[in-house]
Amino acid sequence: MIHLAKQYVIENVLQYKMRGKVAYQSYLPAFIALQITYVKPYDHSSGKGYQRPADTKRVDDFASYLSKGEDALFTPILINCAGNWEFSAYSKERPSFGRLICKSKASLMDGQHRIGGIKRYVEETNSEINIPFMAFHYLDDDEEIKLFDTINTKAKGISSSLSKFLKRESDELSWMATELVTRSDSPFYNLGSITGKRTKGRHVTLQNLYRIANYFLKDSKFGTVIKDEKLGLILTYFNQLRELYPDEWSNYKEHRLTHIVCLDALAMAGSRLLNDYKKDENTHVDYQGFVRAIKRLRKIDWSIEGPFKYLKGINGSKTLSKDLYEIMASK
């Protein structure tokens, strides 16, 4: 049912045209949005439905996101009035600014999980929230389905690497991963990609480095050690490896040293080694002993056709890490 028991009015609406289509922009309270919008399920009786059932986890995740308060910004929902909302300008002098009179429910084309999360949030917190929206005055059923399909198949989310880059000021590991890509004294400076797109010569993504940093640091107790010192340990470790194997480090095509499965293994092994040279959070790292141990990794065959030819996946990394650690830990 798209019939409304009573009409609703939305104030402060901007009317404009997009590609010849009349459209509106404004905001409305959540309790009104929940009353005047509806979803066309894929099995709609008209045969023109297209929406899947809402994913409960995504709804719950958005409700949790809203609990962050003022930092929880979100994008406008997209709706189709199907000619059932009437625009009335406030004055002749400003014909594009006025109010919308909502006579029937509008179809929610994009924002089902946001609306679901908002509904849960306001019910649980007994609070109110304004929802920004963009509305088309009229799209027929086929136009509506086509736009929905475009939004959900052509649009592409940002990469996990770029996401980590954007969080570099608030997340320690994201900052370290970014530094490993952007610092000229980093062994990954000429290998890393911030956007996550691999190109010739840049096959290590920022997301890869985020995971590598996490593997390297997770077994050690740092207490109040600042992030710069943690980054310094990562740089020390991998710079030593690059010095041991300069040709292998720079030749991705013929050697596996900088393939992700091997870098992950090295990070895991390095984590255990670091723990040996930093017994607890109150002691400093024995840098000299740490570096001497790393240098025991000489004479490993990293060639493509070598012993690691068929190594793959996280299990492969874990297996190799044990062997690498045993070599470094041997006295």
From TrEMBL:
- Stored InterPro entries: DGQHR-contain_dom, DNA_S_mod_DndB
Please give the superkingdom of this protein's source: Bacteria
**What Pfam families does UniProt report for this protein, alphabetically?**
DndB (PF14072)
What's the protein name?
A: DGQHR domain-containing protein
Starting at the broadest rank, the lineage of the source organism is:
Bacteria, Bacillati, Bacillota, Bacilli, Bacillales
